[in-house]
Input
Amino acid sequence: MFYRDEKLALFIDGSNLYTAAKSLGFDIDFKLLRTEFMRRGKMLRAFYYTALLENDEYSPIRPLVDWLNYNGFTMVTKPAKEFTDSMGRRKIKGNMDIELAVDAMELAPHVDHIVIFSGDGDFCPLVSSLQRKGVRVSVVSTIRSQPPMIADELRRQCDNFIELDELRNVIGRPTREAQGEANVPVSESELADE
Output
C-alpha cells in the first residue's frame, strides 16, 4: 500500500511502540525502521515522541533519544510528570498525543502518506481529519498481542493497518532478555499514557 513516488512522514508514539514490540518479544532497530520506510517512499520526516524524566540524574531512555536525534529522527520530548497513586505507588505520566496530532496536521499539506506507530484509539479523529485533507494514513501496531495493542476503531479508520509482528524480520532485533542480559533498564514502558 505504498507508492515509491509518494511523500511520507512517520509519527512514532515511543511508549506505545515500545510496549507493542515488547509484547511481541522483540526490540525495534530504529536504523532498520528508517531504512525500510525510506525504501517505501520519499520520507520527509520521522518524528519520535516521548516524555523524559528530567529530575532523575540518569534517564534510561536518554541514550536512545540522543541516538535518534543524531540519526535522522526529529525528537519531540517533554518532561514526564511523576505522582503517587492512591495505593502509594510511584507513577509516571507522559502523554504525547496532542504534540503528535498538532505536528501531523501541520505537515499534512506537504505529504501524501502519514504512518502512525501507535494503536491508541484517541488518534481516530486525527486520522479522519488527515484523510479529509487527502492524506493516506497507515497505522502500525499489533492485534497479535494479548490483549491487542490497537483499538478496533483506529484499525477501522485508517487506510492501511500494518501488523507490527509482520515487520519483525525487517525492523526487529532480539530482546535483551533473549540475548541473556539481566536487569533491563527502565525505558518507555514506564511512561503511562493516561
About this structure: The longest strand covers residues 42-52. Residues 28 and 172 are 5 Å apart (CA to CA). The domain at 7-190 is CATH 3.40.50.1010 (Rossmann fold). The two ends are 32 Å apart (CA to CA).
